[in-house]
Structures are given as structure tokens and as C-alpha cells.
Design goal:
The protein has one domain: NAD(P)-binding Rossmann-like Domain (Rossmann fold, 3-Layer(aba) Sandwich). It is 44% helix and 16% strand. It contains 8 helices and 7 strands; from the N terminus they run βαβαβαβαβαβαααβ. It has a 7-stranded parallel β-sheet, with helices on both faces. Strand 4, helix 4 and strand 5 form a beta-alpha-beta unit. The chain is globular. The chain starts with 6 loop residues before the first strand and ends in a 7-residue tail after the last strand.
Length: 251
């Protein structure tokens, strides 16, 4: 087991709709690999569903409800995890949304909501996780998107995900002296409950035209990339972004 005796927090561990999202898949995989997992989600029932799956498979997990964009709630997350598990070794920042109209038709409210959810939430939770990780080192993995690297119709989504990549690099440099590694995954066209409705009827044609592997990705494939970056196998890797995109970035 690659994460034996580790304690992990997965922020955004539930699925927004029925099915398997990146956070849920990662939380389940972390537990299979021996970690005690704190499953955090805005909706408690979504976090509890992930915990139930983990426990059915013999793993250890707790469910926590929090708005990760608010520092006071981020602090409560960390305090709760330390109270239950005693330490924090791994943090996966998976929470993210895409909403609003195309291009400059975006409203100020939608812009702020997306930026706060996708980017501010990472800074909020890191403020309180890092002091705990400093005690023994750790690994932080942030979830960006391939939208960070090409022209995307949803401006705040693309801008926020590019910000995640930049913030990951800055955190990696700033925290290296504490033996805390910070890396990033950038999923491409992954079949998650959040993405499926957005792709609609264009799904198959988009994959066929743009993805060299000619298929959409699975949340579990993102989870394995996160697992690698969170594990000791990646002990000399920090400040990097791994594209989990079926070759999309090579086109």
C-alpha cells in the first residue's frame, strides 16, 4: 500500500450528480492504498456517500461539510481532521466549477463565484494545512484543467485554472524548504458528472477530433495520477503539472 499510515484530505470528494467524479475516485483510491481519508464537500450527503463506499471496501474515512472558499470553514476542516486523525500528510484540492455565459457575456457574479471556488479555495485551505504539514512534510496536489492552456469559451474557468497552475508553482517553491511538495494535474475530456452535461451531443465528435487516444478519460485515471504525485514515489517531483488528457496537449 503506497499510502499506508498517511492521512489525506480530499476537498471536493463528492459528486455533483450521480456517478464518479475525480474527487470521489481519488478519495476511494487513497483509502485503498492505506490512507485515512477526510472527505470534504459543500454537500454533506455527497461526502457521506463517498465515505460509505470507502467503508464498504474496508477503508477508513470521515465526512465533513464545508464551503472551502471561506477561510473560517477551511480552518474548521483542518481542526476536525487533526482532531480525528492526529496529522495531515496529503491534500488534494479538487473542488471546482464552471458556470456562466460564454466570453464577455459572463456576469460579475458568475466570474467571482468561479474564481473563488476554483482558485481562492486552494489558498484558503493551504493556509491552515501547511502549518500541520510543516511538522513532518507532506504532499499537496491541485486539480487544474487543460482549459488553462488553450482558448476556452468560459473565461473565468480558464483563467482560474491557469491560476491554479501558477499558484502550484509558487507554493512548490515557497514550501520546498519544509519538505512539502506541491504539484498539479490537468485533466482533459474526462467523463465526470460535471462535464458530461456540458459536452452533450458533441461528446463523441469532440473526442474523435481532438483526442489522439480517441476516447474520453475516466475519473479513475485522474485519480491514479494524483496518487502518484501524493505518494513517496514522486518524492523528487514538485512544481509540476501532469496532463491527464489522452494526448490532447500534444496536438
Amino acid at each position: 500500500m503506497r499510502l499506508r499510515d498517511k492521512v489525506a484530505i480530499v476537498v471536493g470528494a463528492g459528486s455533483i450528480r450521480p456517478g464518479m467524479g475525480n474527487g470521489k475516485a481519488t478519495a476511494i483510491l487513497f483509502a485503498k492504498e492505506g490512507a485515512k481519508v477526510a472527505c470534504v464537500d459543500l454537500r454533506l450527503e455527497a461526502a457521506e456517500e463517498t465515505v460509505e463506499t470507502i467503508k464498504r471496501q474496508g477503508g477508513q474515512a470521515i465526512a465533513l461539510s464545508a464551503d472551502a472558499t471561506k477561510e473560517v470553514e477551511a480552518k474548521k476542516i483542518v481542526e476536525g481532521v487533526v482532531s480525528d486523525f492526529g496529522k495531515i500528510d496529503i491534500l488534494f484540492n479538487n473542488v471546482g466549477i464552471g458556470l456562466g455565459d460564454r466570453g464577455l457575456k459572463i456576469t460579475e457574479k458568475d466570474w467571482d463565484t468561479v474564481m473563488n471556488t476554483n482558485l481562492k479555495s486552494i489558498m484558503a485551505i493551504c493556509k491552515y494545512v501547511v502549518p500541520e504539514m510543516i511538522k513532518g512534510g507532506g504532499a499537496i496536489v491541485n486539480n487544474a484543467s487543460m482549459a488553462a492552456f488553450y482558448g476556452h469559451y468560459n473565461y473565468p474557468y480558464a483563467a482560474s485554472k491557469a491560476g491554479v497552475v501558477a499558484l502550484t508553482r509558487s507554493l512548490a517553491v515557497g514550501l520546498a524548504k519544509y519538505n512539502i511538495r506541491v504539484n498539479c494535474v490537468a485533466p482533459g475530456l474526462i467523463a465526470t458528472p460535471m462535464v458530461e452535461p456540458l459536452m452533450g451531443q458533441r461528446r463523441d465528435s469532440t473526442v474523435e477530433q481532438r483526442v489522439p487516444l480517441k476516447r474520453h478519460g475516466k475519473p479513475e485515471e485522474v485519480a491514479y495520477a494524483v496518487l502518484f504525485l501524493a505518494s513517496d514515489e514522486a518524492s523528487y517531483i514538485t512544481g509540476q503539472t501532469i496532463c491527464v488528457d489522452g494526448g490532447l496537449s500534444a496536438m
